[in-house]
Each structure stands twice: as C-alpha cells, then as structure tokens.
C-alpha cells in the first residue's frame, strides 16, 4: 500500500528517491527535512505536544494526535537512525524517541535499537591488536594478556590520557561516607569507551586469562568499586526503568538487546553471527547505571551481570529473571568475549551453557592494578596449560612441535590444577624413554578428561 501511494502521489519530497523509497538518514538530518516541509513540521509539533505529560492511551484517544502520528509515519523521521558516537548523538536519540515512544507502549521487554546496524567484523580489530601483542602462542603463552592490554594502551597518547582520567576520577574520595563521585566516574568512562579505538578498549575488557590475578585485573578495568558496585543491589526491573528515563541509556540498552539477544538460528548464537555488534553494544552500556561487569575473578568461566538482583520482584519475578539472564546466561555474549580472547571471530563455542564450576572465593575490593606488575599465578606454569590445550584442540598438527613435549615432560599434575583427577604419571619416569613410551597413550585420555 505504501509503495502504491508513493507511486500514485506527487513527486517525491526531499529524503526520498525517485521510486518512493525513503532514503535512510540520521534523525538530525530527518528533522531538518521535516522542518522544511510545512505539513510534516506542523504535525511533528503537534505530536510533541501530545506526548508532553500524557500517557499513550490518552494521546491516542485524541483525534488530532492520531492524525499527526499517521502523517509522521510517512516522513523521513519514521525510518531515521543514529550513529554511535556521532557529533549530535544525544539530539539524534531524542528525536528518535520522540517518534517511537508514540508508536509503542514504551514498556516492551525488548525495544528496537535506534542505532544503525553494525556490519563490520572483528577481523580488522584482531589484525590491529596483533601488531601490539604479536599474538604468537609460542612467545606469549606466559604473558598476561590483560597486563599487555594496559601496556598497549599506555603506548597510545589518547588511550593513556583518557584511561588515566577515568581511573583518577573513579578513585577520588569525596568524603568519609562517599568514596567517589559515581556520576563523574560514569561520564569519564563513557568518554573513554566512546573516544578510544576499540582495538585498545576491547583488549582491556575482553582479554583472556589463565589465572585469577589476571581475571581480577580484567574485572577491575572499570574501577568497579565506584562505577559498578553500590551499597545495595537494586531490583533489575527498577534499574531498567531508571535507565529508560534517560534517552542515551535507553538507546544503549535497546542496542544491547538487539545485538546480543541469543539467536539459536546462528552457529555463534549471535544475531547474524556478528560478534563485533554484540561486543560494541556491551561496551556501550559502560558508564550508565546499567553498567555490566564480570561478577567475579574466575578465569575458568565468564559471568556478566549489571549490579542488580531480582529480590522483591513480586509477580514480576519471571520477567525480572528473564532480563537478568540476558546478561548472566547469554551464549552470544559469552561466545563473543571468548572469541576475542582467543584471537578469532570464527571460533564457535557450544550453544549449551557450560557445566557449573566451583568459583573461587570472592576477592575483597582492591585498587586498580598497576601496569608494571606481572599478574601470573605462581601456583602453576601457565605455559604448560596453554600448550597442552593447543595440542588438545589442534591434534596431530603439533605432533612434532617443540611445545608438545611440555605436555609429556611434566612429572606431576597436582590437584591444584586438576582437583578431580589423580596423578597418572609415574614419578620415576623422568629419565626413561622406555617408560615415557608407556605413559604416552594415557596423555590424550588425561587431556580429554
């Protein structure tokens, strides 16, 4: 019907191509096009007056408001979107919601994202990140990737300046009862993630870890004692409602749901198989009350959550739990983070949630870790873990490699690294080639276990 009306109607106004299709424009430009058209301009003013101080049902009961809404659905404003980080982003989002809050109830569980779709992939970011780190497993098996990410940031003037700025702001004590300014901390964090290239910010947020000290550094990336944690956890639905009163927070949350909502039609569990879109949407939430973070310093599992719970949800508990699971049990988000940590956007993790693991004791709050300290855990050699894992994943391709011998030269696998397994290697076998040959068939079984 829309196509027929456009073909039978007058010549296309600005913002449309000759065939009647609306050319996608950002909402600031769409507003300018609407202002240049008297009919659109007057209807837009009417709609804004209809929305001011009225609920949607009251607005729709007014005939003039209904007509204004119908006319604007045919204008460039209806299809407009915003670019993340654009110069007039907040103004663009305000225009977007002024139209779309009138078209919807405003209380949907998921809302459409006001941002343009992300079409790029992680490949380019991995390529740029590899310039700094080398990404060579043979040379970086002992390295702390989160510490390496901090050092790489310090080599870039813009990254170093903005990172130092938010750490200083988020760590500055205001009074005896207020240890920081949460509002200023969030603003500094938003500036960092909006203005620093993602090859630096992603490496700080999504670096892979082999030990608890590294994972704690990753958790401390956003200075959680100020930006994330609070005295009490609010109800998640209350937190969502507060977020939706702010156009910017509402937009970032809608974008997160659009790009990280689990899709079982995709082998990656992400919509369109796009890890880049999900990670970007996640980073876009940092610096708001809805800020997500790692819930603990576990290197073996990735659990993300905003600072909220479903306690006191009443008859809304099921909806609250569903909202919270979009963070805590989200295979798309988990796969995207693991893929970036592994250095590939095509490494697919199983769709089913990982089996529960025993989490380490919750660590006490600690200041951000300095960048000149090696976080490696001395309980065990992470190079052994990394190499043996690569042998398990890649099989015969590493049979003749020097690194593979590390898996077979270990004379003891303690319960510190594999608490549920007994030691299979004979303590006397270190110098005997014959005994090593007998033990060798047991190693794949051990690795699989």
What does this structure look like?
Keywords: Cell membrane, Disulfide bond, Glycoprotein, GPI-anchor, Lipoprotein, Membrane, Receptor, Signal. InterPro entries: GDNF/GAS1, GDNF_alpha, GDNF_rcpt, GDNF_rcpt_a2, Glial_neurotroph_fac_rcpt_a1/2. The protein is 51% helix and 1% strand. The protein has 449 residues and is mainly alpha-helical. Among the domains are: 27-101, no CATH class; 143-342, GDNF binding domain (Annexin V, domain 1, Orthogonal Bundle). A two-stranded antiparallel sheet has the order 1-2. The longest helix has 15 residues, at 89-103.
What's this, in brief?
GO terms for molecular function: glial cell-derived neurotrophic factor receptor activity. This protein has 449 residues and is mainly α.
Identify the notable features of this structure and list them briefly:
GDNF family receptor alpha-2, disordered N terminus, mainly alpha, two-stranded antiparallel sheet, 449 residues, 2 strands, cell membrane, Annexin V, domain 1, signal, single chain, disordered C terminus, lipoprotein
**Rg from alpha-carbon coordinates:** 26 Å
**Estimated structural class:** mainly alpha
Number of helical runs? 24
| Separation of the first and last Cα atoms | 61 Å
- Main β-sheet description: 2 strands, antiparallel
What is the helix fraction of residues, given as a range? 40-55%
Level-1 CATH class name of the domain at 143-342: Mainly Alpha
Q: Quick one: how many beta strands?
A: 2
Helix/strand order, N-terminal first: HHHHHHHHHHHHHHHHHHEEHHHHHH
Mean pLDDT: 74
Under CATH, the topology of the domain at 143-342 can be stated as: Annexin V, domain 1
